[in-house]
Write a structure and sequence with these properties.
The protein has two domains: 2-112 and 224-262, Periplasmic binding protein-like II (D-Maltodextrin-Binding Protein, domain 2, 3-Layer(aba) Sandwich); 117-215, Periplasmic binding protein-like II (D-Maltodextrin-Binding Protein, domain 2, 3-Layer(aba) Sandwich). It has helices at residues 2-26, 52-63, 75-84, 98-101, 122-125, 134-139, 154-162, 175-183, 194-203, 205-210, 235-248, 252-262, and strands spanning 30-34, 42-43, 49-50, 68-72, 89-94, 104-112, 117-121, 144-147, 168-171, 189-192, 211-215, 224-230. Helix 2 crosses helix 11 and helix 2 (52-63) packs antiparallel against helix 12 (252-262). Strands 4-1-5-12-6 form a five-stranded mixed β-sheet. Strands 10-7-11 form a three-stranded antiparallel β-sheet. It is built from twelve helices and twelve strands. It is α/β, with parallel strands linked by helices.
Length: 273
């Protein structure tokens, strides 16, 4: 009798194991592509992934009951994979623009940026008023650093498009490279999100000594950020994600994650070491 029960229990475990394995094969984890950009996306020393947009994405996918795995990928490679990928892919925190909408699907917005600002060499900042307009900034013909293939939001992208090409230095990398180029006198200024400017000044004595930020007087409200999906996503899965986004944005967990943004006070002066 006991042996019969043992066999039944053993067979039950086998059935459960096979069911789990079958589900994993039928619904493998969806790759979530990101690039290292503090404080939005952070690859930690133990290879775990954090950053406030990453944490928001985790909440959304868990709410939608979608299995996922993060994969660090350079920005240009992400765009290529989203455009040409043969399996469902997600990438975190992108701005929506017409070029990207040609090959990608965008979810409901997951976060609204604070307005863009500029980070500029202090000696160049002396030629600007306290709160310059975009027209004043661009009229100085300072050397502008721009990440190739990067979007700074609809309004800023439009202004950059009108700026003389000989005054633009394009490079491959991320916003942290912009700060290095400013410190090394390769460029005079660049556009940057309010959220990450605070991080650079808090971590870099060089930035505090040589650079400052200027808010743009006529800057519109910040742009919306989305999850960007490739077109291999079916409508049912997209609907699940959008429903989860709406629910997550009403949660206390979400409000706690984004609360730091409204409390940022960028300290650009040299700090005591």
């Amino acid at each position: 009798m006991k042996s019969g029960k043992i066999i039944k229990v053993f067979l039950s475990f086998i059935v459960i194991f096979l069911a789990i394995k079958l589900e994993a094969n039928v619904n493998p984890p969806i790759k979530v592509l990101y690039f290292d950009r503090t404080p939005f996306y952070i690859k930690n020393l133990d290879n775990s992934v954090s950053g406030f947009l990453i944490e928001i994405t985790k909440l959304i996918l868990q709410k939608a009951k979608i299995q996922y795995e993060f994969q660090e990928t350079p920005t240009k490679r992400i765009l290529s994979m989203i455009e040409k990928g043969t399996e469902p892919l997600i990438s975190v925190g992108w701005f929506k623009n017409p070029q990207r909408e040609d090959f990608a699907i965008f979810t409901e917005p997951i976060y609204k940026n604070r307005p863009q600002i500029i980070i500029i060499q202090k000696e160049k900042a002396a030629y600007l008023s306290k709160n310059p307009t975009m027209k004043e900034i661009l009229s100085k013909r300072f050397k502008l650093g721009v990440i190739d293939g990067f979007s700074y939001g609809k309004w800023v992208d439009g202004e950059i498009a009108k700026y003389p090409q000989e005054n633009i230095f394009k490079f491959i990398g991320d916003p942290s490279n912009s700060v290095v180029m400013l410190e090394n006198n390769r460029i005079d200024f660049c556009f940057i999100s309010y959220e990450e400017a605070d991080y650079f000044f808090s971590k870099s004595a060089g930035a505090r000594n040589l650079l400052t930020v200027k808010q743009i007087a006529d800057a519109p409200e910040g742009d919306l950020r989305y999850l960007m999906l490739n077109k291999k996503f079916d409508k049912d899965l997209l609907d699940k994600i959008n429903k989860a986004i709406i629910e997550v944005k009403e949660s206390q967990e979400y409000k706690k994650i984004i609360s730091f943004s409204s409390n940022i006070q960028i300290k650009t002066s040299t700090l005591q070491q």
